[in-house]
Amino acid sequence: MKYITIWNLPTGNYNATVARFLETGGMPPNGVKMLGRWHGMSGQGVMITESDDPKAMFAFRAQWSDLIEMTITPCLEDADAGAVLAGMAKH
Length: 91
What we know:
Layout: E1 2-8, H1 14-24, E2 33-39, E3 44-50, H2 54-64, E4 69-75, H3 78-89
Antiparallel strand pairs: 1-3, 1-4, 2-3
């Protein structure tokens, strides 16, 4: 399953977050594959990951919970969403 992760970096945690990111590379734990990550200039960023293990995704969230606000949402690609929507249109 793919996940969209959006984070917000509070100004008060900027230096500590940068230090941890530079130390660890911000990589997710085993069981989570990062497909891409983008950093906005506003302190907000987004990452797309893939995992079959929701506990690994929770561990990733927990690793950063002391520094940043993070929202993780399961998501579908267009083809899968389209198939669901097409099935709904038949009813």
